[in-house]
């Protein structure tokens, strides 16, 4: 397949499975060389299945040291980075959480990992005159996440950070996109259902649960068009519009929806 991604070099985090693995596979189909990064050693098996254009890196992409090591690895294997997919994410604690440590972990993975990667990559992209940062957020970043304050807050932050990148560095040739799906058939969705909480029910009852490969195709089509807001579930746009048109009404409706889920 010949596309604008042909010959590009990409890093995808959270790539051992789920959306990250699907993005890596679709990128390779479009002619991109990819470093797959994940904390899980399973990423090596995922990369091996994708062939000679895939390289596995195992480590913590939420830390400054990890980001530095990942970028150095990508430079060595690929000769540079044209696109960075900040896809790694965790569901975090239920409700308000119980300790600062609960919040520290999800803030590092879902938010600071994006900031730290951009701090390392933007200067070199400015010098090169091009670069692309793609953040995996969630519909929760536009709406909210019933049952998890930390997930909702960090995904809002992910959307806000990508938006700021897209605006600030546009004239430098740098682009940014943010992915905001609802339910996708991944381990993260399974984690949201742990303990019988309402977070998973809120997602699965709101719309179709998509397969990662479907999401990857939609995402990369949008990236090729340099589209900022990527909505694999298009109905999220109407929900977002309803929220913005009458915030108080939306809050009352979400409260009733939460009550129904809790009753179930």
Instruction: Name the CATH class.
Output: Alpha Beta
Indicate the overall shape.
globular
Largest sheet: 7 strands, parallel
Q: What helical percentage do the residues reach?
A: 40-55%
The CATH architecture can be named as: 3-Layer(aba) Sandwich
N- and C-termini, Cα separation:
47 Å
Number of strands: 7
Looking at CATH, the homologous superfamily is NAD(P)-binding Rossmann-like Domain
Strand order within the widest beta sheet: 3-2-1-4-5-6-7
Question: How is the CATH topology named?
Answer: Rossmann fold
GO molecular function: oxidoreductase activity
Organism: Brevibacterium linens
Keywords: Oxidoreductase
Family: Belongs to the short-chain dehydrogenases/reductases (SDR) family.
Structure description:
It comes from Brevibacterium linens. Belongs to the short-chain dehydrogenases/reductases (SDR) family. By secondary structure, the protein is an alpha/beta fold. It has a single domain, classed as NAD(P)-binding Rossmann-like Domain (Rossmann fold, 3-Layer(aba) Sandwich), CATH 3.40.50. The chain has 10 helices and 7 strands. The chain has a 7-stranded parallel sheet with strand order 3-2-1-4-5-6-7, with helices on both faces. Strand 5, helix 5 and strand 6 form a beta-alpha-beta unit. Helix 1 runs parallel beside helix 2 and helix 3 runs parallel beside helix 4. The longest helix is centred in the middle third of the chain and has 29 residues.
